[in-house]
Amino acid sequence: MSQQNPIFIPGPTNIPDRLRRAMNVPSQDHRAPDFSDTFLPVLAGVKEVIGTEDGEVLLFTSSGTGGWEAAISNTLSPGDKVLIARYGMFSHRWIDMCQRHGLDVQVIECPWGTGAPADQFEAILSADTEHEIKAVMVTHNETATGVMSDIGAVRKAIDSAAHPALLFVDGVSSIASVPFEMDAWGVDVAVAGSQKGFMLATGMAVLGVSQKALSHMDEAKLPRTYFDFRDMLKANANGGFPYTPPLNLIYGLRESLKMLSEEGLENVYARHYRLAEGVRQAVSAWGFKLCAQTPDLYSNTVSAIFVPEGFDSNELTDHAFNKYGISFGIGLGEMNGKAFRIGHLGSLTEVMVLAGLATIEMAMVDLDYPIQLGQGVAAAQEYYRNTAPTK
Amino acid sequence: MSQQNPIFIPGPTNIPDRLRRAMNVPSQDHRAPDFSDTFLPVLAGVKEVIGTEDGEVLLFTSSGTGGWEAAISNTLSPGDKVLIARYGMFSHRWIDMCQRHGLDVQVIECPWGTGAPADQFEAILSADTEHEIKAVMVTHNETATGVMSDIGAVRKAIDSAAHPALLFVDGVSSIASVPFEMDAWGVDVAVAGSQKGFMLATGMAVLGVSQKALSHMDEAKLPRTYFDFRDMLKANANGGFPYTPPLNLIYGLRESLKMLSEEGLENVYARHYRLAEGVRQAVSAWGFKLCAQTPDLYSNTVSAIFVPEGFDSNELTDHAFNKYGISFGIGLGEMNGKAFRIGHLGSLTEVMVLAGLATIEMAMVDLDYPIQLGQGVAAAQEYYRNTAPTK
Amino acid sequence: MSQQNPIFIPGPTNIPDRLRRAMNVPSQDHRAPDFSDTFLPVLAGVKEVIGTEDGEVLLFTSSGTGGWEAAISNTLSPGDKVLIARYGMFSHRWIDMCQRHGLDVQVIECPWGTGAPADQFEAILSADTEHEIKAVMVTHNETATGVMSDIGAVRKAIDSAAHPALLFVDGVSSIASVPFEMDAWGVDVAVAGSQKGFMLATGMAVLGVSQKALSHMDEAKLPRTYFDFRDMLKANANGGFPYTPPLNLIYGLRESLKMLSEEGLENVYARHYRLAEGVRQAVSAWGFKLCAQTPDLYSNTVSAIFVPEGFDSNELTDHAFNKYGISFGIGLGEMNGKAFRIGHLGSLTEVMVLAGLATIEMAMVDLDYPIQLGQGVAAAQEYYRNTAPTK
Amino acid sequence: MSQQNPIFIPGPTNIPDRLRRAMNVPSQDHRAPDFSDTFLPVLAGVKEVIGTEDGEVLLFTSSGTGGWEAAISNTLSPGDKVLIARYGMFSHRWIDMCQRHGLDVQVIECPWGTGAPADQFEAILSADTEHEIKAVMVTHNETATGVMSDIGAVRKAIDSAAHPALLFVDGVSSIASVPFEMDAWGVDVAVAGSQKGFMLATGMAVLGVSQKALSHMDEAKLPRTYFDFRDMLKANANGGFPYTPPLNLIYGLRESLKMLSEEGLENVYARHYRLAEGVRQAVSAWGFKLCAQTPDLYSNTVSAIFVPEGFDSNELTDHAFNKYGISFGIGLGEMNGKAFRIGHLGSLTEVMVLAGLATIEMAMVDLDYPIQLGQGVAAAQEYYRNTAPTK
Fold first, then answer.
1. How far is B337 from B163, CA to CA, in rounded Å?
2. Are D286 and D244 part of one and the same domain?
3. Does A290 touch chain B (CB under 8 A)?
4. D25 in contact with C, Cβ within 8 Å
5. Per-residue pLDDT, B342
6. Among D109, D41, A15, which residue's Cα sits nearest to residue B1?
7. How close B25 comes to chain D (CA, Å)?
8. Is C3–D14 a contact, with Cβ atoms under 8 angstroms apart?
9. Residues D233, D323: one domain?
10. Confidence of residue C365 (pLDDT cuts 50, 70, 90)
11. Pick from D5, D356, D384: CB nearest C349
12. Interface residue of C199, C377, C386 to substitute, partner D, most D CBs within 10 Å
């Protein structure tokens, strides 16, 4: 029966019924003349969600990780210098990827729980008078720590340094759940995935690419074929795909965009804020601390929550899974054993969140955590009932 | 997004994913030689669930109401006397149906909140020395009041009176969720529906019929064709159906039986008891009263809960639906405005129940009910965490 | 793999993917305030398909047989006289049902392969100066023989006799596939089913009822509860259902109406004619005869085809099923062993029909029928390629 | 309605209902302890299908093209020499990919319509006494020309030359449809995709990798992260995935393997041969020629068919799609305009193939091709009826 429970990991997210149906399609011929009628509006719809009019949207059959590989291999060459701050597992992974692709990564080490250090970016870029740094890479929402960084501030830092570096943003666990302004923020490559804010199955990386980034395609020397922007753009221009596309996800994305549009992006964002804030009220009622160090860094898509000293967060998530059949996010990297995570993004309601909070409370009391049953739930209830949108 | 929330009405129940898939079948030829390979094991599987070896199982394309019409029209004749106690909306409905079919209904009026009055049955049957009463009709689980009656006691009453009356039992909201012993209890017709304990879509009445009841088929004078047992039995004997069968529900029932068997009927019943008891702990923590007057009558599939004096239960259920997108059962009949109902049957987990309790609490506080947020939730949490089965 | 093959029975029909998806819905509360938003437009949509503005549409959870029982039990009383012509299995069944419900059935025996005898109706009704005949019952499309009767001619016969009898029409295998004009033809009760022209799963009877028929509700003495129009109309008036409705079929019907409307009813009818005519071209090329005796009787939803003398049609359909995994309709009643049937209604294309024709040809040659492989296929191909609609 | 028609492209293939259902799953936590229970048996099942006991199976979220990129980037370094014969669009694409990844490709130009030139391989490898050639890459089934090459012969060629080169085989449109013997043929990397013989949606590359190939992982200098075998193997060893896996495809593959096993791989292969041979009988009846030059090269998964001189194959496929709503494969590369293709792999029956043949015949006659309607169909019918397996 436990498959009936919602999941509380920061992705893949709970797939709404409507998208389950939308993805359930028969095979069709992607070379048939009508494929473009389905496909091209999808590209246009994604542009609105990521806030670009000038950029291009590209879809690759891969997880978000593949999307990042596409981003770097189409714009950079071996030996190119890039600037990345490490403040969580996912920023760490981009550093690792860049290094494995032969890039020269200048790493800024930041405490986990902090976000993108705009001031340090500015200082380093200002000092880089030769413009050796080709790109700055930022994880918008660091899923490991529940930290949302201020991308606008990063853009300001780059501009203040009058530096031509490209700005790459990992929006995998932020896009379509919180505001994302690709053009306004001057983002050159934004990477999202089908399985988070778009509420679909895993399998498609969604990229927004600026004209500036595209202008680097031909000079970029990192080898790539599968992820080559050029093949994709050429095929897209004719309404096609360079190889067999994932039809189910394209149909799913079409419906996902319709759902987002029907709810209204502003309402989608407000809902994510509200659900997140209810979780934070519960955390506060328990007397626990978030990994995110300050309120301006709180993520509206995932909360990473420190367990009290002497407790093992892995035991907690295992227990919740084994006894109550419900999945919470484990602590990743530095946070392993120290924090658990509640994903609160995608197709979610306050009703579902309360189920999650009530369950983790049971698991905590089972393991002698110093909390009272109903304590966090009541705080969240109070918040939710006072903030419910009028319909 | 509210479609993602579970529902808490006493049926139709939340359909598990596995059954959603199982019912999603292409059309097939019900006259093809292989139909019986699917169909006949389904009949056998239902026999186990309702506890009969001697009886026959018949499936009709209809809701449970149609199942009842099948029961009476195949065994009784206009003017026949039947004995029914009215203690809720559903027992009331059978009285109404019998009267509209020209039966002579002897009604025992009982307070809503009580169950089948075995002692009164015995007295009346003992006094009926001419055996004019042809059938006693009992609602096993009175969905309107959350009362589960003791069918074994009714059987004992009939036997004590040494009366040949048939025993008809409405098991629509009990069968496959709580123990049902057709043969042991001497039930002559048991009626269930696809959309409750079997966790399927609405559309199929499931009947268990004893050989004794079948022996009345030919003499029964109530007209019927669609619901005629004889046509159905004749077709079933050849592995077929007398008219186009609801293939999706038959495939669904096949999988439902598999799920019930995999979990184990005893475990299914224990789960229903546990989920119900958690709800009752919450009700008690709120200081509210159940409609069911004594603990031996408490239903494990639905709880009808009185709201405090001066409150309107319809306002509560409307508010919960409109503000939080979640459906609870309204008060039916006499209980309208006075009680709301929480359905806790079918494919349900404690995680889901806690979501329902947390939501109704918000709705109650919104409407100034004299309860504290988290109060009922905490009581249920405490119960659930202490009673979780080891896996 | 054979589940991938289309079926060629005259219902249930091949369910299009879009309707498979539409029927795959989670449980919802049919007493929730929003149910009527879904339900009421469905009733209105059906009115258009059956051609009534004045009548009411009622949906019952049952197969079409249940729909017929609803029709007679809500308008007639035991002993009432009705007039029915028997010219196939389905007209036979209505006679049987009426007799089992205590009606006095005046039967006109017609050769199977002919249709409703308007002239005989007129003669009998004209002679019935006392207006003892309360209803005339006609099977629009006799599925057993592939005969489509002229309902307008029957109406004219009744009018010529200036007789007040109600006109009941079984449109189960005609409605939504061929033109049906309830108001124009003065039909009092029209019965359809979800699993034919509406292309859905089996489980819902769809009735159109005239105000004249409704005016008989209160005086009708046949007992009924489940199928009582009054309960249904009362509940419908408030946007509800008198008992748990089959949500999946209501959602399915909503989408089915949308599909029919998008294609355009005229185009739907033209497609059925064209597909049927292609089959008839094949039959003619084989040198076989249809059961329907004259071209004006040819059904556009099913063709019943005589096998040559000395052949057994059951062997043919069994062979096709066992060797090629494809279902054709068997000969029913008088036609058993003498004819097989090709259903060509619902969600069907010429591509699918050709698959059926090619397969039955293989089966026939396997059994030494005097035909050539490709013979019928070529005739159908020629017809289809010359008549394809421009898109 | 045309979505009801089967498709006749060589992939994606018609997805059977059972797999549509299997892929329709809710999101689950891929880091939960039970994920490996699902995942690991899938890897084992694929091993059987590709015929390896010693090798490893790896699944990447990508199309087959991504699988090839994984193959080369994990085993080779820039400047490495590889040997590839170009005899169609797909062998051409691997050449292109290798070149774009900085490999030194020795290309053997072969006429399209021929297969892998084992003798030329042997000559070149024998001459390569320095063993500069690191890998030989062969397209097992050249989808563009309908040519199936003899991989065993290629292995023999390599062995005869006593050359240590790795053998890479593109089995995207062959694996799970025709025999594939990875160990017996000494294949070092075999690449398949979810959307062909496995009958699933597009989105997963399926790789078999020999221990010999794996031994090159650490020295391989082509950059890769997303497709890195090491990350994948490390995660797989713990039953996990290095990033969010495509759960729906993994569940789908589990069911696909079950279907293949239930039918029996030998029967699956026999079915593909039989379906293909029926198509070839039709081609022969039309008097047309296959692109594949000799019978030993005929592919059992796709037939590429030359249209007569003076006709344009693109017009034919467009016409079939626009007028009859059915997709055939267009001619690719050199074959564009000269040949069309009929895909006959995956979930297919002779009934479906006959639909395709009948349709393409109509389209051809519409365009004045010198054929008779029913001509090819009759030839295929004759073949199919004589070769149907006894059930």
1. 40
2. no
3. no
4. no
5. 98
6. A15
7. 8
8. no
9. no
10. very high
11. D5
12. C377
| D32 at B interface, C-beta within 8 A | no
Global model pTM greater than 0.80: yes
Helix (H, G, I), strand (E, B) or coil at B145: coil
CB contact under 8 A, A1 and B271: yes
Give the DSSP H or E segment for C66. Answer: helix C64-73
Shortest Cα distance, chain A CAs vs residue C20, angstroms: 9
Confidence label for D2 from pLDDT (cuts 50, 70 and 90): low
Single out the residue in A243, A261, A279 at which a domain terminates.
A261
Is D137 within 8 Å of D83 (Cβ atoms)? yes
H-run or E-run covering A105? strand A104-109
Judge: D381–C366 Cβ closer than 8 Å, yes or no.
no
Domain count, chain A: 2
- The predicted-structure confidence for B90-116, as pLDDT tens digits, reads as follows 999 999 999 999 999 999 999 999 999
pLDDT of A235-254, one tens digit each? 999 999 999 999 999 999 99
Residues of D in contact with C355 (CB under 8 A): 351-352, 354-355, 358
Give the distance from residue A114's alpha carbon to the nearest chain C alpha carbon, in angstroms. 42
Chains that touch B (3 or more CB pairs under 8 A): A, C, D
pLDDT computed for residue B391 by the predictor? 62
Helix (H) or strand (E) holding C105, with range, is: strand C104-109
pLDDT tens digits, B129-151:
999 999 999 999 999 999 999 99
Cis peptide bond N-terminal to D246, omega within 30: no
Residue B1 has a pLDDT of 56
User: How would residue D327 be classed by pLDDT, with cut points 50, 70 and 90?
Assistant: very high
Residue D373 is nearest to which of C324, C373, C382, comparing CB atoms?
C382
Residue C70, helix vs strand vs coil: helix
pLDDT digits (tens, 9 = 90+) for B247-293: 999 999 999 999 999 999 999 999 999 999 999 999 999 999 999 99
Q: Is the ipTM of this complex over 0.90?
A: yes
Same domain? C256 vs C283 = no
Q: Structural domain of residue D288, as residue ranges?
A: 2-12+265-387
> Are residues A234 and A308 located together in one domain of the fold?
no
Using one digit for the tens of pLDDT, what is the confidence trace for C45-70?
Answer: 999 999 999 999 999 999 999 999 99
| Share of residues in chain D with pLDDT > 90 (%) | 96
Instruction: Label the pairing between strands A133-139 and A81-86.
Output: parallel
Closest by CA position to D348, among listed D16, D12, D5, D1: D16
Same domain, A151 and A223: yes
Integer Cα distance of B90 and B71 in angstroms:
15
Question: What pLDDT, on a 0 to 100 scale, did the predictor assign at position B78?
Answer: 96
Distance from CA of A23 to the nearest CA of C (A): 10
The first and second tokens of residue D140, run together, are: 């097992």
A374 vs B contacts (CB less than 8 Å): 374-375, 377-378, 381
Q: Which chains does A contact via 3+ CB–CB distances below 8 A?
A: B, C, D
**Are C96 and B228 a contacting pair at CB < 8 A?**
no
A189 and A273 assigned to the same domain: no
User: What is the layout of strands, in order, in the sheet containing B56-61?
Assistant: B56-61, B204-209, B189-193, B166-170, B133-139, B81-86, B104-109
Final residue belonging to a domain, choices A211, A234, A261: A261
Q: D24, B21: Cβ pair inside 8 Å? A: yes
Note the pLDDT of residue D4: 86
Among residues 5-24 of chain C, which lie with CB inside 8 Å of chain A?
Answer: 17, 21-22, 24
Nearest to A17 by CA among A352, A206, A259, A284: A259
Q: Which of A38, A202, A217 would you mutate first to test chain D, the one with the most D CBs within 10 A? A: A202
Mean pLDDT of B333-338: 96
Positions at the binding site of B for substrate: 341
- D28 CB near a chain A CB, below 8 Å? yes
